[in-house]
Design goal:
By secondary structure, the protein is of the alpha/beta class. The protein has 9 helices and 7 strands. Bound molecules: adenosine-5'-diphosphate (2 copies) and zinc ion.
């Protein structure tokens, strides 16, 4: 099963993608997580990506697509995956389609996790992230067991640099301009499924599993 997660920054794509990956035993591929891991490790790719990310801008398509193509070569990605944060532009979606066509496969579901902008700011300001293992929490809606500490690996949780309100606004604009057109793109391919992302996260997941049955 090949799944694309669509939705604004902070809509809950990552939260749901992790649950999907666990239930359906497919890898969760998050371009944001891969960029953050590279930044943490001080790689060349990380240095390039950081300058864009901190400004709330998208990393250039060329860089992003080649990174995903490399990830697709890993053995665990041969039978399916849930893509989180990719594609984010029409050219990225076209590159993905071209690669899938070559291997005789296709995207089965594009899940649009729909959350209005008004709710996004609140979700992002309360988000806390573990840079070590990629786990995500929310101060109010998904609190860690111990304040400020990652449940899964014990690392200290941080507010991401790009989750500050000034940057969130910029990211929302970028989303509406460059990423939202993908909803229509996947609708035309007849794989688009809408999910009400304003519900509790367990209810969102229940709706998703109904779609994926
Ligand atoms: P969120 O989950 O809040 O939407 P992500 O972790 O997916 O955020 O992405 C964080 C940042 O990483 C983005 O704002 C962007 O700068 C960069 N990024 C992630 N995925 C992509 C992509 N597919 N294309 C371009 N930039 C990306
Ligand atoms: P995305 O990957 O789309 O940027 P995340 O999955 O990181 O979004 O979620 C953004 C923030 O909102 C996180 O702090 C997360 O814990 C929280 N969150 C996710 N889903 C829900 C939900 N259904 N209700 C309330 N908060 C949520
Ligand atoms: Zn962790």
């Amino acid at each position: 099963m090949r799944i694309v997660m669509l939705g604004a920054p902070g809509a809950g794509k990552g939260t749901q993608a992790k649950k999907i990956a666990e239930k359906y035993k497919i890898p969760h591929i998050s371009t944001g997580d891969i960029f953050r891991a590279n930044i943490k490790n001080g790689t060349e790719l990380g240095k390039k990506a950081k300058s864009y990310m901190d400004q709330g801008m998208l990393v250039p398509d060329e860089l992003t697509v080649s990174l995903v193509m490399d990830r697709f070569k890993e053995p665990d990605a041969q039978d399916g995956y849930v893509l989180d944060g990719f594609p984010r532009t029409i050219p990225q979606a076209e590159s993905l389609d071209a690669a899938l066509k070559e291997s005789g496969s296709q995207i089965d579901f594009a899940l649009n996790v729909d959350v209005p902008d008004e709710n996004i700011i609140q979700r992002m300001s309360g988000r806390r992230a573990c840079v070590k293992c990629g786990a995500t929490y929310h101060l109010k809606y998904a609190a860690p067991k111990k304040d400020g500490i990652c449940d899964s690996c014990g690392e200290e949780l941080v507010l991401r640099d790009d989750d500050r309100p000034e940057t969130v606004e910029k990211r929302l604009n970028v989303y509406h301009e460059q990423t939202q057109p993908l909803i229509e793109y996947y609708a035309q391919k007849n794989v688009l499924k809408e999910v009400d992302g304003t519900q509790d996260l367990e209810d969102v997941f229940r709706d998703i599993t109904k779609i994926l049955q």
